[in-house]
Amino acid sequence: MTSDPVSDPASDCGQLWEIIQASRNKLKAAFDAIADPVCSVTPDLRVESLNLALAQLAGRHPRELVGLGIGQVLEQAHFVPTARQQFLEAMAEVRASGRAQARLVETSLQEGHLFYELTASPVLDKQGLVNLVILQVQDVTEFKRMEQTVREYSQSLEEKVAERTRDLTLAQDQLREEKERLAQANLELRRLDILRHDLTNMVVHDMKGPLAEVMGNLDLISYEPLSDMQREALELASLGAEDLLRMIMNLLDIDRLEEGRLLVRPEPVLFADLAGGLLRKFQTLIRLKGIEAQAQDETAGAFEADPALLGRVLQNLLTNALGHTPEGGRVELRAAIGDGEGVLLSVRDTGAGIPERFRERVFQKFTQASDGSGPRTSTGLGLTFCKMAVEAHGGRIWFDSQEGVGSTFHVWLPRQIPE
Protein backbone atom coordinates (compact mmCIF):
# COMPACT_ATOMS: atom_id res chain seq x y z
CA MET A 1 0.00 0.00 0.00
CA THR A 2 1.40 3.31 -1.11
CA SER A 3 0.89 6.73 0.41
CA ASP A 4 1.18 10.33 -0.92
CA PRO A 5 4.33 12.09 -0.01
CA VAL A 6 3.94 14.69 2.66
CA SER A 7 4.06 18.18 1.18
CA ASP A 8 6.41 20.80 2.59
CA PRO A 9 4.46 23.91 3.69
CA ALA A 10 7.55 26.08 3.52
CA SER A 11 8.20 25.00 -0.05
CA ASP A 12 4.60 25.71 -1.06
CA CYS A 13 4.71 29.15 0.47
CA GLY A 14 7.92 29.90 -1.33
CA GLN A 15 6.48 28.93 -4.67
CA LEU A 16 3.33 30.97 -4.00
CA TRP A 17 5.46 33.96 -3.05
CA GLU A 18 7.43 33.65 -6.27
CA ILE A 19 4.20 33.56 -8.29
CA ILE A 20 2.85 36.60 -6.46
CA GLN A 21 6.15 38.43 -6.88
CA ALA A 22 6.25 37.63 -10.60
CA SER A 23 2.67 38.83 -11.06
CA ARG A 24 3.46 41.97 -9.08
CA ASN A 25 6.51 42.69 -11.25
CA LYS A 26 4.45 42.19 -14.39
CA LEU A 27 1.75 44.51 -13.09
CA LYS A 28 4.37 47.10 -12.08
CA ALA A 29 6.00 46.89 -15.53
CA ALA A 30 2.66 47.38 -17.22
CA PHE A 31 1.84 50.19 -14.78
CA ASP A 32 5.12 51.98 -15.47
CA ALA A 33 4.74 51.50 -19.23
CA ILE A 34 1.70 53.78 -19.25
CA ALA A 35 2.87 57.11 -20.66
CA ASP A 36 0.28 59.16 -18.75
CA PRO A 37 0.47 59.83 -15.00
CA VAL A 38 -1.43 57.12 -13.06
CA CYS A 39 -1.79 56.51 -9.33
CA SER A 40 -4.01 54.68 -6.89
CA VAL A 41 -5.38 56.68 -3.95
CA THR A 42 -6.74 55.38 -0.66
CA PRO A 43 -10.01 56.63 0.87
CA ASP A 44 -8.01 58.96 3.12
CA LEU A 45 -6.45 60.52 -0.01
CA ARG A 46 -3.03 58.89 0.39
CA VAL A 47 -1.08 57.67 -2.64
CA GLU A 48 -1.00 53.90 -2.49
CA SER A 49 1.01 53.43 -5.74
CA LEU A 50 2.03 55.45 -8.79
CA ASN A 51 3.78 54.92 -12.09
CA LEU A 52 7.06 56.34 -13.38
CA ALA A 53 5.32 58.99 -15.49
CA LEU A 54 3.83 60.69 -12.41
CA ALA A 55 7.09 60.29 -10.41
CA GLN A 56 9.08 61.88 -13.23
CA LEU A 57 6.73 64.88 -13.28
CA ALA A 58 7.38 65.26 -9.54
CA GLY A 59 11.12 64.74 -10.04
CA ARG A 60 11.35 62.03 -7.37
CA HIS A 61 11.55 58.25 -7.04
CA PRO A 62 8.14 56.54 -6.77
CA ARG A 63 9.01 55.12 -3.32
CA GLU A 64 9.46 58.66 -2.00
CA LEU A 65 5.92 59.60 -3.03
CA VAL A 66 4.03 56.54 -1.78
CA GLY A 67 2.09 57.43 1.38
CA LEU A 68 2.00 61.15 0.70
CA GLY A 69 -1.29 62.98 0.27
CA ILE A 70 -2.55 63.07 -3.32
CA GLY A 71 -2.76 66.88 -3.21
CA GLN A 72 0.92 67.09 -2.21
CA VAL A 73 1.96 64.68 -4.99
CA LEU A 74 -0.05 66.61 -7.60
CA GLU A 75 1.54 69.84 -6.42
CA GLN A 76 5.04 68.37 -6.71
CA ALA A 77 4.06 67.15 -10.21
CA HIS A 78 3.49 70.82 -11.07
CA PHE A 79 -0.23 70.62 -11.70
CA VAL A 80 -1.72 74.10 -11.21
CA PRO A 81 -4.12 74.67 -8.28
CA THR A 82 -7.26 74.82 -10.42
CA ALA A 83 -6.41 71.44 -11.99
CA ARG A 84 -5.58 69.88 -8.59
CA GLN A 85 -8.89 71.08 -7.21
CA GLN A 86 -10.85 69.48 -10.05
CA PHE A 87 -8.87 66.21 -9.64
CA LEU A 88 -9.82 66.11 -5.95
CA GLU A 89 -13.46 66.88 -6.73
CA ALA A 90 -13.58 64.00 -9.22
CA MET A 91 -12.17 61.56 -6.67
CA ALA A 92 -14.66 62.76 -4.06
CA GLU A 93 -17.47 62.10 -6.55
CA VAL A 94 -16.14 58.57 -7.15
CA ARG A 95 -16.01 57.82 -3.42
CA ALA A 96 -19.52 59.16 -2.94
CA SER A 97 -21.18 57.48 -5.94
CA GLY A 98 -19.00 54.45 -6.46
CA ARG A 99 -19.02 55.18 -10.21
CA ALA A 100 -16.16 56.19 -12.52
CA GLN A 101 -15.77 59.81 -13.47
CA ALA A 102 -14.34 61.30 -16.71
CA ARG A 103 -13.72 64.98 -17.04
CA LEU A 104 -12.01 67.47 -19.36
CA VAL A 105 -10.08 69.87 -17.16
CA GLU A 106 -9.11 73.25 -18.55
CA THR A 107 -6.74 75.64 -16.80
CA SER A 108 -5.36 79.02 -17.76
CA LEU A 109 -1.77 80.22 -17.60
CA GLN A 110 -0.01 83.28 -18.90
CA GLU A 111 1.37 81.25 -21.80
CA GLY A 112 -2.07 79.87 -22.67
CA HIS A 113 -4.63 77.23 -21.77
CA LEU A 114 -3.81 73.71 -20.56
CA PHE A 115 -6.17 70.77 -21.10
CA TYR A 116 -6.27 67.43 -19.23
CA GLU A 117 -8.48 64.42 -19.69
CA LEU A 118 -9.08 62.98 -16.20
CA THR A 119 -10.32 59.46 -15.50
CA ALA A 120 -11.09 58.42 -11.89
CA SER A 121 -12.11 54.75 -11.50
CA PRO A 122 -13.19 53.04 -8.22
CA VAL A 123 -11.79 49.75 -6.88
CA LEU A 124 -14.42 48.12 -4.63
CA ASP A 125 -13.89 45.74 -1.69
CA LYS A 126 -16.03 42.70 -0.82
CA GLN A 127 -18.66 44.87 0.78
CA GLY A 128 -18.92 47.01 -2.38
CA LEU A 129 -17.25 49.99 -0.78
CA VAL A 130 -14.62 52.07 -2.54
CA ASN A 131 -11.27 50.72 -1.45
CA LEU A 132 -9.09 52.64 -3.92
CA VAL A 133 -9.48 55.25 -6.63
CA ILE A 134 -7.36 54.85 -9.76
CA LEU A 135 -6.53 58.30 -11.08
CA GLN A 136 -5.23 58.74 -14.65
CA VAL A 137 -4.38 62.14 -16.14
CA GLN A 138 -3.69 62.68 -19.85
CA ASP A 139 -2.30 65.98 -21.12
CA VAL A 140 -4.31 66.76 -24.29
CA THR A 141 -3.23 70.39 -24.59
CA GLU A 142 -1.58 69.98 -28.00
CA PHE A 143 -4.53 68.02 -29.33
CA LYS A 144 -6.97 70.65 -28.07
CA ARG A 145 -4.86 73.42 -29.52
CA MET A 146 -4.82 71.67 -32.86
CA GLU A 147 -8.55 71.11 -32.53
CA GLN A 148 -9.01 74.81 -31.77
CA THR A 149 -6.82 75.73 -34.75
CA VAL A 150 -8.88 73.45 -37.00
CA ARG A 151 -12.08 74.91 -35.59
CA GLU A 152 -10.87 78.47 -36.15
CA TYR A 153 -9.66 77.58 -39.65
CA SER A 154 -12.99 75.91 -40.40
CA GLN A 155 -14.86 78.94 -39.12
CA SER A 156 -12.63 81.23 -41.15
CA LEU A 157 -13.17 79.05 -44.20
CA GLU A 158 -16.92 79.10 -43.67
CA GLU A 159 -16.83 82.88 -43.38
CA LYS A 160 -14.78 83.14 -46.57
CA VAL A 161 -17.14 80.75 -48.34
CA ALA A 162 -20.10 82.79 -47.15
CA GLU A 163 -18.39 86.00 -48.26
CA ARG A 164 -17.49 84.48 -51.62
CA THR A 165 -21.04 83.19 -51.99
CA ARG A 166 -22.36 86.69 -51.34
CA ASP A 167 -19.92 88.09 -53.90
CA LEU A 168 -20.93 85.46 -56.45
CA THR A 169 -24.59 86.07 -55.78
CA LEU A 170 -24.05 89.80 -56.23
CA ALA A 171 -22.06 89.16 -59.41
CA GLN A 172 -24.80 86.84 -60.65
CA ASP A 173 -27.40 89.51 -60.00
CA GLN A 174 -25.27 92.07 -61.80
CA LEU A 175 -24.79 89.69 -64.72
CA ARG A 176 -28.52 89.07 -64.85
CA GLU A 177 -29.16 92.81 -64.88
CA GLU A 178 -26.48 93.27 -67.54
CA LYS A 179 -27.99 90.44 -69.59
CA GLU A 180 -31.41 92.07 -69.38
CA ARG A 181 -29.90 95.42 -70.33
CA LEU A 182 -28.09 93.86 -73.28
CA ALA A 183 -31.26 92.08 -74.33
CA GLN A 184 -33.10 95.40 -74.31
CA ALA A 185 -30.25 97.04 -76.20
CA ASN A 186 -30.29 94.17 -78.70
CA LEU A 187 -34.02 94.59 -79.23
CA GLU A 188 -33.51 98.29 -79.77
CA LEU A 189 -30.66 97.63 -82.20
CA ARG A 190 -32.79 95.14 -84.09
CA ARG A 191 -35.60 97.67 -84.23
CA LEU A 192 -33.22 100.35 -85.48
CA ASP A 193 -31.71 97.90 -87.99
CA ILE A 194 -35.16 97.08 -89.34
CA LEU A 195 -35.90 100.80 -89.51
CA ARG A 196 -32.56 101.42 -91.28
CA HIS A 197 -33.25 98.53 -93.66
CA ASP A 198 -36.73 99.82 -94.50
CA LEU A 199 -35.51 103.40 -94.84
CA THR A 200 -32.62 102.34 -97.09
CA ASN A 201 -34.93 100.34 -99.32
CA MET A 202 -37.36 103.24 -99.59
CA VAL A 203 -34.59 105.71 -100.41
CA VAL A 204 -32.99 103.34 -102.90
CA HIS A 205 -36.28 102.62 -104.63
CA ASP A 206 -37.06 106.33 -104.71
CA MET A 207 -33.63 106.98 -106.25
CA LYS A 208 -34.12 104.44 -109.03
CA GLY A 209 -36.92 106.46 -110.62
CA PRO A 210 -35.05 109.77 -111.07
CA LEU A 211 -31.90 107.88 -112.03
CA ALA A 212 -33.79 105.98 -114.73
CA GLU A 213 -35.00 109.34 -116.12
CA VAL A 214 -31.44 110.69 -116.15
CA MET A 215 -30.11 107.59 -117.90
CA GLY A 216 -33.00 107.63 -120.39
CA ASN A 217 -32.43 111.24 -121.31
CA LEU A 218 -28.69 110.68 -121.64
CA ASP A 219 -29.47 107.81 -124.01
CA LEU A 220 -31.77 110.08 -126.06
CA ILE A 221 -29.07 112.73 -126.29
CA SER A 222 -26.66 110.14 -127.65
CA TYR A 223 -28.77 109.94 -130.84
CA GLU A 224 -28.30 113.64 -131.52
CA PRO A 225 -25.39 114.96 -133.60
CA LEU A 226 -22.64 115.83 -131.05
CA SER A 227 -19.10 117.05 -131.17
CA ASP A 228 -16.33 114.78 -129.98
CA MET A 229 -16.06 116.71 -126.72
CA GLN A 230 -19.80 116.57 -126.16
CA ARG A 231 -19.94 112.84 -126.89
CA GLU A 232 -17.03 112.24 -124.52
CA ALA A 233 -18.78 114.21 -121.77
CA LEU A 234 -21.98 112.29 -122.46
CA GLU A 235 -20.20 108.95 -122.15
CA LEU A 236 -18.62 109.99 -118.86
CA ALA A 237 -22.02 111.13 -117.56
CA SER A 238 -23.52 107.80 -118.60
CA LEU A 239 -20.72 105.95 -116.82
CA GLY A 240 -21.38 107.97 -113.66
CA ALA A 241 -25.09 107.21 -113.86
CA GLU A 242 -24.41 103.52 -114.39
CA ASP A 243 -21.98 103.57 -111.46
CA LEU A 244 -24.68 105.06 -109.27
CA LEU A 245 -27.15 102.45 -110.50
CA ARG A 246 -24.60 99.73 -109.68
CA MET A 247 -24.28 101.07 -106.11
CA ILE A 248 -28.07 101.09 -105.73
CA MET A 249 -28.33 97.54 -107.02
CA ASN A 250 -25.53 96.47 -104.66
CA LEU A 251 -27.52 97.73 -101.72
CA LEU A 252 -30.68 95.96 -102.82
CA ASP A 253 -29.04 92.70 -103.79
CA ILE A 254 -26.90 92.43 -100.64
CA ASP A 255 -30.09 92.55 -98.59
CA ARG A 256 -31.66 89.92 -100.84
CA LEU A 257 -28.58 87.69 -100.61
CA GLU A 258 -28.48 88.00 -96.81
CA GLU A 259 -32.13 87.03 -96.61
CA GLY A 260 -31.78 84.25 -99.21
CA ARG A 261 -34.26 85.96 -101.55
CA LEU A 262 -31.93 86.54 -104.51
CA LEU A 263 -32.05 83.58 -106.87
CA VAL A 264 -29.18 82.56 -109.10
CA ARG A 265 -30.42 81.84 -112.61
CA PRO A 266 -27.61 79.96 -114.34
CA GLU A 267 -27.19 79.71 -118.08
CA PRO A 268 -24.22 79.15 -120.41
CA VAL A 269 -21.87 82.14 -120.29
CA LEU A 270 -18.89 83.06 -122.44
CA PHE A 271 -16.26 85.06 -120.56
CA ALA A 272 -15.10 86.79 -123.74
CA ASP A 273 -18.58 88.27 -124.24
CA LEU A 274 -18.83 89.58 -120.64
CA ALA A 275 -15.31 90.99 -120.55
CA GLY A 276 -15.54 92.51 -124.04
CA GLY A 277 -18.81 94.27 -123.20
CA LEU A 278 -17.31 95.73 -120.00
CA LEU A 279 -14.21 97.05 -121.75
CA ARG A 280 -16.37 98.69 -124.43
CA LYS A 281 -18.54 100.29 -121.73
CA PHE A 282 -15.49 101.82 -120.02
CA GLN A 283 -13.51 102.61 -123.16
CA THR A 284 -13.83 106.39 -122.72
CA LEU A 285 -12.51 106.29 -119.13
CA ILE A 286 -9.76 103.87 -120.20
CA ARG A 287 -8.73 106.16 -123.03
CA LEU A 288 -8.76 109.32 -120.91
CA LYS A 289 -6.56 107.72 -118.20
CA GLY A 290 -4.24 106.21 -120.76
CA ILE A 291 -4.66 102.74 -119.26
CA GLU A 292 -3.86 99.63 -121.23
CA ALA A 293 -6.78 97.22 -120.73
CA GLN A 294 -7.32 93.82 -122.29
CA ALA A 295 -9.26 90.60 -121.79
CA GLN A 296 -7.97 87.06 -122.29
CA ASP A 297 -10.14 83.93 -122.37
CA GLU A 298 -8.48 80.51 -121.99
CA THR A 299 -11.55 78.58 -120.86
CA ALA A 300 -12.20 77.02 -124.28
CA GLY A 301 -15.96 77.21 -124.00
CA ALA A 302 -18.94 78.29 -121.93
CA PHE A 303 -19.59 77.67 -118.25
CA GLU A 304 -22.70 78.03 -116.10
CA ALA A 305 -23.39 81.31 -114.28
CA ASP A 306 -26.01 83.97 -113.80
CA PRO A 307 -24.89 86.45 -116.49
CA ALA A 308 -26.43 89.46 -114.72
CA LEU A 309 -24.84 88.71 -111.33
CA LEU A 310 -21.48 87.63 -112.76
CA GLY A 311 -21.46 90.67 -115.03
CA ARG A 312 -21.91 92.94 -112.03
CA VAL A 313 -19.20 91.07 -110.10
CA LEU A 314 -16.73 91.65 -112.95
CA GLN A 315 -17.91 95.27 -113.30
CA ASN A 316 -17.31 95.93 -109.60
CA LEU A 317 -13.83 94.41 -109.81
CA LEU A 318 -13.03 96.31 -113.04
CA THR A 319 -14.33 99.60 -111.59
CA ASN A 320 -12.08 99.17 -108.54
CA ALA A 321 -9.12 98.28 -110.76
CA LEU A 322 -9.59 101.31 -113.01
CA GLY A 323 -10.14 103.59 -110.01
CA HIS A 324 -6.90 102.51 -108.30
CA THR A 325 -4.69 102.27 -111.38
CA PRO A 326 -2.78 105.46 -112.23
CA GLU A 327 -2.45 106.90 -115.73
CA GLY A 328 -0.36 104.74 -117.99
CA GLY A 329 -1.09 101.63 -115.93
CA ARG A 330 -2.43 98.26 -116.98
CA VAL A 331 -5.62 96.29 -116.25
CA GLU A 332 -6.18 92.71 -117.36
CA LEU A 333 -9.28 90.51 -117.26
CA ARG A 334 -8.49 86.83 -117.63
CA ALA A 335 -10.30 83.48 -117.57
CA ALA A 336 -8.60 80.08 -117.39
CA ILE A 337 -9.40 76.49 -116.53
CA GLY A 338 -9.42 76.16 -112.73
CA ASP A 339 -8.98 73.32 -110.30
CA GLY A 340 -11.73 70.86 -109.54
CA GLU A 341 -13.81 71.14 -112.72
CA GLY A 342 -14.08 74.90 -112.43
CA VAL A 343 -13.03 78.13 -114.10
CA LEU A 344 -10.72 80.76 -112.64
CA LEU A 345 -11.49 84.40 -113.40
CA SER A 346 -9.12 87.19 -112.44
CA VAL A 347 -8.91 90.97 -112.61
CA ARG A 348 -5.37 92.32 -112.26
CA ASP A 349 -4.21 95.93 -112.01
CA THR A 350 -0.95 97.79 -111.54
CA GLY A 351 -2.32 100.18 -108.95
CA ALA A 352 -1.16 101.11 -105.45
CA GLY A 353 -2.13 97.75 -103.90
CA ILE A 354 -4.08 97.13 -100.70
CA PRO A 355 -2.36 98.13 -97.42
CA GLU A 356 -1.70 95.22 -95.09
CA ARG A 357 -3.90 96.58 -92.30
CA PHE A 358 -7.01 96.55 -94.53
CA ARG A 359 -6.65 93.09 -96.05
CA GLU A 360 -8.67 91.30 -93.38
CA ARG A 361 -11.66 93.61 -93.94
CA VAL A 362 -11.90 94.27 -97.69
CA PHE A 363 -14.95 92.02 -98.10
CA GLN A 364 -16.80 93.50 -95.12
CA LYS A 365 -19.66 95.94 -95.51
CA PHE A 366 -18.83 99.64 -95.83
CA THR A 367 -15.08 98.99 -95.78
CA GLN A 368 -12.66 100.96 -97.95
CA ALA A 369 -8.97 100.20 -98.29
CA SER A 370 -7.90 103.72 -97.32
CA ASP A 371 -6.84 105.50 -94.17
CA GLY A 372 -10.00 107.62 -94.11
CA SER A 373 -8.12 110.91 -94.48
CA GLY A 374 -9.64 111.66 -97.87
CA PRO A 375 -13.28 111.79 -99.00
CA ARG A 376 -15.20 108.57 -99.43
CA THR A 377 -15.57 107.73 -103.11
CA SER A 378 -17.79 104.63 -102.79
CA THR A 379 -20.21 102.91 -100.44
CA GLY A 380 -17.76 100.12 -99.66
CA LEU A 381 -20.35 97.54 -100.73
CA GLY A 382 -18.92 96.47 -104.08
CA LEU A 383 -16.59 93.75 -102.79
CA THR A 384 -19.19 92.63 -100.24
CA PHE A 385 -21.63 92.07 -103.10
CA CYS A 386 -18.94 90.26 -105.11
CA LYS A 387 -18.22 87.83 -102.28
CA MET A 388 -21.89 87.06 -101.64
CA ALA A 389 -22.74 86.69 -105.33
CA VAL A 390 -19.76 84.39 -105.98
CA GLU A 391 -20.61 82.22 -102.95
CA ALA A 392 -24.22 82.05 -104.15
CA HIS A 393 -22.77 80.43 -107.30
CA GLY A 394 -20.96 77.85 -105.13
CA GLY A 395 -17.61 79.58 -105.75
CA ARG A 396 -15.08 81.55 -103.79
CA ILE A 397 -13.20 84.85 -104.12
CA TRP A 398 -9.80 85.98 -102.83
CA PHE A 399 -7.00 88.35 -103.78
CA ASP A 400 -3.25 88.85 -103.93
CA SER A 401 -1.84 92.31 -103.41
CA GLN A 402 1.49 94.04 -103.03
CA GLU A 403 1.73 97.71 -102.13
CA GLY A 404 3.18 99.77 -104.94
CA VAL A 405 2.84 96.88 -107.43
CA GLY A 406 -0.88 96.14 -107.74
CA SER A 407 -3.67 93.71 -106.89
CA THR A 408 -5.24 90.65 -108.46
CA PHE A 409 -8.71 89.47 -107.51
CA HIS A 410 -9.44 85.81 -108.23
CA VAL A 411 -12.86 84.20 -108.64
CA TRP A 412 -13.26 80.43 -108.82
CA LEU A 413 -16.58 79.14 -110.13
CA PRO A 414 -17.78 75.60 -110.84
CA ARG A 415 -18.45 74.93 -114.50
CA GLN A 416 -21.85 73.61 -113.47
CA ILE A 417 -23.65 75.22 -110.55
CA PRO A 418 -24.83 72.54 -108.08
CA GLU A 419 -28.59 72.11 -107.69
Concise synopsis of the structure shown:
The chain is rod-shaped and about 165 Å long. The model is unreliable at 371-377 (pLDDT under 50).
Salient structural properties:
419 residues; alpha+beta; Beta-Lactamase; Heat Shock Protein 90; 5-stranded mixed beta sheet; 11 helices; 12 strands; rod-shaped
Explain this structure.
The chain has helices at residues 9-33, 52-58, 62-65, 70-76, 81-97, 141-221, 228-259, 271-281, 283-289, 307-324, 382-392, and strands at residues 38-41, 47-50, 101-109, 112-124, 130-139, 267-269, 292-297, 303-305, 330-338, 342-349, 396-402, 406-414. With 419 residues, the chain is of the alpha+beta class. The strands form three sheets. It has a five-stranded antiparallel β-sheet, sandwiched between helices. The longest helix has 81 residues, at 141-221. The model is unreliable at 371-377 (pLDDT under 50).
Mean pLDDT: 84
Shape field: rod-shaped
Helix content: 40-55%
At CATH level 2, the architecture of the domain at 262-414 is: 2-Layer Sandwich
Q: How many beta-strand segments?
A: 12
User: Can you count the helices?
Assistant: 11
